[in-house]
Every structure is written in C-alpha cells, then in structure tokens.
Amino acid sequence: MTTLQSLKQALRQEAERIETVSSIREPLTDEEYSIGFEILLRDSGWITYRDFVVPHLTQLLTPILTSHTRISVLEIGPGPRSVLGQLPLVLRRTVGKYAAYEPNALFATRMKESLSSSSGMESPLPCLEIPPIIHQRPFNLHESESHAEKFDVILFCHSMYGMNSKAKVIERALEMLVQRPEYGIVVVFHRDISLKFDGLACYLTASFSTGAVCVADDDLELDRFAPFVAGFTLQDICKYENLRFAWRKVCRTLGRRDEAYLGHLFFGSPDIMTVFTRYSTSLPDLAAQVPLLKGELVVKNREALSHRPACIVRPTKIQHIQQCVLWALMNHVGLTVIGGGHSGHCRQPNVVAVDMSAFDKVHIVAAGDDKKDPTSKLGPLVIAEAGCKAGGIVRESMAAGFTVPLGSRPSVGAGLWLQGGIGHLARLYGLSCDAIVGAIIVSVKNGRLLCVGHVPAQHRPAGAMCPEYEADLLWAIKGAGTNFGIVVSVVFKAYPATTHGVRNWVIPLMNDNDARFKINYYDLYAAQRLPANCSVDMFIYQEEDQMRLGVTLFENPTAEVNPMTATIRTVLGSERSFKAVDDMGLFETDMYMSEMHGGHGGNKMSSFKRCIFLKDIGYSPVVNLLIKTMKTRPTSLCYLHLLHGGGAVRNVAADANAFGYRQWEFACVITGIWPRGEDGTELAHNVKEWVYKVAEELLPFSWGIYSADLGPGPRDAALASRAFGPNYPRLVQLKQIFDPHNVLADACPLRQIPATQKLIILVTGENGVGKDYCANTWASVFNTNYGNHVVARTVCISDVTKREYAAMHPDVNLARLLHDRDYKEQHRPAMTAFFDAQVACRPRMLEEHFLAVVREAMSVDVLFITGMREKGPLVTYSHLVPEHRLIEVRVQASPQTLRARRDYYGADGRDNDKQATSGYCPTIVFKNEAPGIEPVRHFGVCYLLPLVSEDIQRLAKMVRPVPDFPRPHMTFQHVLGIAKHPQGLEVCTRLLASLLIGGWITVSAIACCETGGFTFASPLAEKVKKPIAFIREAGKLPPPTISVTKSTSHISASTSSSSKDKVIEMEMYSIPRGSLVVVVDDVLATGHTLCAVLELLSNAGIRPQDTVVLVVAEFPAHRGRELLYERGFGAVNIRSLLVFDGV
Questions:
Q1: What are 37-85's pLDDT values in tens digits?
Q2: Which of 659, 691, 965, 1072 is the most core-located residue (most Cβ within 10 A)?
Q3: pTM for the complete prediction?
Q4: How many helices and strands (H and E) does the chain possess?
Q5: CA 767 – CA 1118 distance, rounded (Å)
Q6: Which DSSP helix (H) or strand (E) runs through 873?
Q7: Does domain 759-948 have CATH number 3.40.50.300?
Q8: E-strand spans in 464-498?
C-alpha cells in the first residue's frame, strides 16, 4: 500500500512536471487545510487514534495520575479538537491546566468553543482550574525561557510536519517540563516513521505499521485531499486546473482498492510514537564513558539499517557494557544490542545501540581442561563471545575437531543462538540453545556481572557473581536470551565434527493436485520416517511460470545406510547436484543460495521473513494454504522454505528451557524477497504484508511461531504469545525479575503478567443486532481504560470455518469472505454444506475451533468471541476452559431495528444464528437500540469493565490452593478462607452486590444453603437490606417446611465418607410465590446442591426465570451448568465472581 509520504512525493513530482518558472505555489488556506484534515480523520484514519494514539496516551498518563492529583498539559498543533477528549473521563478529570499553540484560525476557534463551558456541551476537560489558553500562533522556538510556563506533559500529536530543526523543537519543549516531580514527558506522534531527532535518546518508542487512510474515489473529494497531502495549490488558475486533473490520476494510480470497500482508495499511514524526558539530552555523558562507533555500521537487516539510533556505542571491555546499562538505568531509557545484525529490531529510532563486535573471541576447552571442575562430564566446550558470528565459531571449533549446532547462515550472531538456533544439525544434536550450558551476562537490573551455569574457571571474568535465581536465568536465556540481560559470552557443549552428503532435486509441480500429492508424499513417507542423522528440506517456489518443489536431502555418510534414504533417491531419480561437505560447508548448501532464481546469495536482494512451526504439512488445509500462498506472492522471488525438524529437537522436554515448542516437523520460513533498489517502496511494503498474512493464515494450524524474528511492533506483539508455548507465562514473570525497568524493551515482546482471573466474553445474538460492532467497541473500552492495564481482543469463531473453507477452495477470496457481507452471502450455502460435512466427519470440531481461538489469544486478558452458533454456549464450553471466567452477553434489538439493519446490510432477513432463547439464560443482555457508539461504550464501562476490577484479582488471591486434598493429586481451593482475610468479606460482599445488574429493588429474598452459603449471604443481605431464607438439612428448621432430596456435594463425593443422599428443607412461607429470588452460595461445582435448592424453590412457587444465582467461585471442570440445564434449570441466571480449575 502506497504510504502518504510516498503519495506526497509523487504529487510534488507531478507538480514540478506541470508548473513553469512563472507558477507560484500558494500555501493552503485555513479552510482548505481544515477540509483536508477532516478527510484524513474519517473512517480508517480514526482507527490510528482509536487503536494506537489513545491507548498509548492512556498508558503514559496513568502513572502520572497516581503521582499527582492535577496535571498540566501543553498541546502543540492540536487541530480543531484535543485528542485528550478521547481519553477516559477519569484521566481527563486530572487535567487542571491546559494550553495549546494552534496557528490555524479555524482550528483555534473550534478548540476554544469545544473547551468552553458556555458552549452548551460538557467540556472534554471538565476539571480545569483556570481557563484554557489557546495561542493562535506557531510554537515559538526562541521564546524566552524565563517567561515560559512549565508543564507536566507536552504533546505533539501529528503536528511536527513542516517544522525545521525538529530536535531543537524537542529540546525547547524539554526545557518547558516541570523540574519536580520528575515524571514530565514530551510525547510525539508522527505519521512518517523515519522521523529523526539527532542527539536525543528517547524514553519510549512504539510503532503502528498498519495505519491507513481511506478517501472516496470522487473528483471533488480528491481535489480536496491531494492539495492537503502535497501541502500547496497553484496561484495560476489554469495551471492549477491541469494539476488537479493530474493529481487525481496520481491518487487513483497509487491508491489501493479493496473489493470490500468499493469506490474508495486506501493509502498507508504508518505511525510512530516517541517519548522524551528531561534525561533525553544526556548522550554526552554516555559518550564520555564508552567508545562510540566510528563510521557507519552496516547490518544485514535492511529494516534495521533504515532506523537511525540515537547513537551506536562500541564497548571494548566488559566495564563499558556495565557503564552503558548504568547510564540507561540512571536516565530511564532503553538499549538495543547488535550482534550479527540479522534482527529487524537490533537498531531502533532514537534508541542507543550497543555494538558487540569487539567481543569476537572463540575458545575451545577440551574434556578435562576445566580448571574449575576437572571431573566435569560435559565433555569438550566451546566458549563464544557475543560478537562472534556462527561461521567463525564453527570454523574455530572444526580446527579442534568439534562443531556446534548453529543456524543456517554463517553471518548470524548471538541473537539467533539465544532464541533457538535452527540449522541442519538440529535433528542430530538439537537446537543451538539446547547446547548452551553456561553464560556470562551483564544484568540490566543493576549492571552487575553475572555468571550462570557451567563456565570454566579460566574463562570467568573477575568480579562475576552467581545470581540468586541462577537456574531461572540460565533456563530463560536458552530460548529467549535477548530479553534478560546483555550476554557477553556463551558456553556451548561441543560435538564431533563430521561430513555430510547433500543431494538436490528440483521437481516441477504440474497443477494443484500434483503439488498436494508430492508435498504429502515427502511429508508422510520421507520426512516423518527418516532417522535423526538425515533430514530433508523442501522449497516451494516458482520459476519460469511454473511452481516447483525443491528437495534437499542431508545424509551423514558415517552413519548406517537407511532404507528410507535409498527409497527417496529411487523415487526422485537422479539428483540435480551432489556435494560432500563439512560442517562449515553446510552453510552454503541451502537451495536458495545457488539453485533458485539464479541464486539469492549475491546480496542484491532484500528479504523479510517469519517462521511458523508445522507438524502435518500434508494435512489438507495446510497444504492448500501453502499452494495458495505461492499464487498470491507479490514478487516472483518469494518462496517457502520447509526446514526439517524433529529428531533431537523433539527429545528435549518442552519445559527444559525457554524454547517451548518441540513437536513440530517443519519450520516453515515464509520468505519475502524484493530487489534491493526497491527498499522502502510500495513493493517492499506489499511483500511484508504478504509475509504477515501467510503467517496469520498458517498460525491456526501451527505449533507456534519462531521468536527470533519478532520485534516490538504491534503485529509481532500479537504473534509473540505463540512463540514460547506453555513457557510464556513463566518468561513474563522472569522478565519482571531480570529486566524490571524494561531496558531491553525492543526484544521479542513479553508483556506484563496476564490477569489471574482471565475473562472470555461470548457475544451472541441474531443476525443484524450488531454483535461484531458491540464486541469491537467493548474491546476498545478495555484497551483504553486507564486502570486495568489489560489487553482485550475480538475474534469471530466462524472465521476458523471460513479459513478452512477458503483453504479447500483456492478460487475463494478469503479477505472478501471475512469482510464483504455480499460476498459472504454468495458463499453461505456452500459454506453451510461444508460446515455440516466437517461436523459429520469431526464430531468435536466446534470444540476444536473454540479451543483454537482461546489458545491463539493466550496472552490476552479479555477475549471477545463472536460468531457462536450453539444453543447454550456457556453450558457447552465452560468446562473446556476451567481456568477462564466465561460469560455470555446476548445482544438484542427490536424487530423494527433488525429489519432496518438487515435491509441496510443487504441480508436476506433469515436468522442463521441457531440460538434459542427459551429454556436458557445468558449472563447479561444488551439491547442495542439507540444509535451511535456511546450507548454501547456506556454498557461496556458500567457492566463489563467491573468484571476485571482490581477487587476481583484481590479476591482471587485470597483463595488459598491446598494440594493433595481431599485426595492425592487433587488441589482444593479454600474459598471459605476469604472470610479469614481482613476486608475479605467486605470485598466479596461488595462484588456480589454488583453482580445483580438490574439492582436489588425487585428482589424479595436471598436464599442460601448451609454451610458455605451462610458465610457470604448474611453480610450481603445486610448490605442490600433483604431477608434471608435459610435452607438446611431436615430437622433443623421448625415446621411447616418443604423439602427435597439432595445428592452429595463435590467435596463429599471426593472423600471416602458416606455418599448417602440427604434431605434439605426451607420454611414454607419464607418466600412469596412468584417473587424474584437471589440464591447465594460459596461454590458451583457439580451442581447437585444448587439443583436441589432450585427444585426446592420451584416447589415453593418460584420460577427458574425469576431466580438469579450468585456464587463466589465456580469450578467449570465439574460441568455444573450442564447438569442444571439438563434438569430444566437452564433459564436460571447464574453469575460467579471467580473461576478455578480444581475442587
């Protein structure tokens, strides 16, 4: 997609072609600028604010809120309204002083009106202590400092365009920050991600690469939009008319069209946020302590090369690295580390980069030469410093008769070994990180020098100490090592050097069926049956208008001849080439280096890669996606490399080190290639988009993603939760321990510890009620709320079926199937038939789909799921995710509203959402009738946000787990122990009272059953002023009573005591017939007790639909909701505060 910056350049070039010397450029009038600005913010343009600007501002301002009751804000170039107005109200109330510089007279007037209390509308900043000051002039760089006001926050939100000496502007703004307290910040949002601030080190940076602007493909609209982007008009009316015609053509040529949005043009608008503090000018202090790099450092990764760091330091001794860390800690800034330079995030804009190239020594320690432990059984060791490249390490090791299993390229550095290291020796010896037995690390927590694992005494630097959590740190660096410190050197276990036979075949794929057959054959009959000393890689690519399959067989000649390798050679026939190579020669054997497209090894190409772990590539949806992918590649040079895994990789336990995915068979390297001369162009952008799209489509069928490629960007952050498998939560915790100040913020993202009580919200309802709209809006509410620090995401579960359907039908456009309603309706009959056929073949398919979307959102705190088609989804799915709190929000609308929406969207009026409303009750109902977004947001703020409140997390921590009770291998959650905590009952009572959304006015009584129910019902009844109807065992209440038989509870059933049924009873006239009753209990597990209580209430004349059940803790694994539904109590509204996987 062409970016706005590229469009601007094209428009100006066109103007230079048309205009003559006599033509005079006219700057835009305030009105012309205003019209163009409004176009920019419409539709997709506003998404950048909603999903990037507002969430990041919220996160930045929240810590300031906790430090001070009122803050002062200066906004430079706010436009017609302040972006602060989009922040949560609780944050806006903290702004006590506001000033702005806005040179556009129309914008300044509108700004004053919007902030004025006399405008008839509430001011977006309702708690200003003094009237806002709007300066109708540009920000003055040379204004006297003695007369300048001081501010807590200074904001440049897309307002630095046209400013000269941007670094000087920021320096001037830094002078205007308050001196005490020290939290003052200058925040810059900018649409051109190449923004440079020479001489300044940023406190924080973030990017938003998916931003876009949508403009109508209309002459009048383009005539308003193009001059705004170009920044001028022409004085000569005739020439300007010609220029407008030419500009329309440029916009239509460069704009991307989307079949789902006909009549519109899209342009990329990537955004970047850079945050500065008053410490950002401290680079001279660092330069005085650590040598700076002389000259330019050229790194392999072209994306990293385009980034301009604040400076690059080149430490030559360990003390220099420690001084870098101490400087970063003192000045509250981050660092990046440059090893081999293959990572896209080794250089970041305005961040100090540490070049480790001076640490380039390799040492070999033979068996028995370890002076620390002469009896060590680790055998020969290779000690490699962090500036070494893989080729140098292997070369030095081979000279001593050894080798180390490193990556596929000789130029890769330490970042690869520390995050996995997948190469051609992996099946034989394991991953690179598996061979690590020790390391020397500079702590980014305090700058100390640490020694972890086994480091021979003669190679342990003076002053190195063993940390408190040594085993944890060693575990973490073996698979995620770029996140936990600056590694100085690594100790590898060495293996015997050997030679290898390498055979290549190139097989034409005549059509899709031929491709499916051959890929499936090599997967099933070759790759899965080869011994560990052999491997087979595959390349899917296209050359001379034909898809081809490249096959490379690696054999260890010293091993016994395997029948499977002989079979492969018989089936494939004569190989195209054969080589016998040593371990160093393995680096040059990959087919893409010399065989494909004339060879990619000449350094004339740029590439972008992401790697997905696959197991069964012959599985129909996977192989169909692989084939379909090649048909959509943006350049003929793009390819898929299927690198063989298994063997020794799989022999390591998933939790043995941080690299948690072990069961995959192939690492699918999605490789986008473009000519180097096209760097930064539309083509390069399209190639990257293709790589991400393929990765996202393969991810649901995968065993995870390789972390070595992932950086801090939002698209990688979304993938990172699938990078470490079950080890992700532990890594997140260790990140807080070893890098508490987030010095290494630009490594593979490990976000903060997810909430202990994670929430899944099923958004259900008929077609046309606005389920997706509501879910997206509510997710935005969570993401932008100041106090929860939670991450919310929305997924449509039916998208899984759509992806599988598209994978089986290569002619189907998946993007249109997901986003184009009319296109989806065209395919609905075929999709329905496909869905029914899949369910018939895979009876558990719906459960598989549900678990797949939950698994993909492992790092998310709140997951909204739409597209549910099942009757009673809480009953169906809650036991599958017993550690998650599952609720259902049913969206409803009147028949008139539904008809209007269906007509608007062109639907046929049928209700395809197979839910039934009778006999089943969702958790909450939202009536989506009122127009606009505010009613939806209001519902989210009032009724959904409290579900993840801090009180919920506090309450969960009060429940003590008791292992091996009441039986071995069972964990008892001591819910009644809440009452032992100070304020435990107070917090629990407050939360229980809030669960009844409609209020307590219409409630007649609270019913509770001994013993647990009494504990929590009594304080609740006191709080809401309602009578209690006690339910007890027979014989403990005076007559007259009504009674029922109760089965044993889940605790009784878990012990060896008597499991005889008991009779429970209630006073006959304690609750009026037909009234609304709230049942309170401590737990809901098997549901037997609650069933008996509801039956008792039914006998007393209380209908299920007039009953609400509030429980403190639910244990979904016991399927209590399912029992209640089967016994006829599905209409009872059940709400729980906590969920646990246990008893």
A1: 988 887 677 778 878 898 889 888 877 765 666 899 999 999 998 999 8
A2: 659
A3: 0.72
A4: 37, 43
A5: 33
A6: helix 873-877
A7: yes
A8: 486-493, 495-496
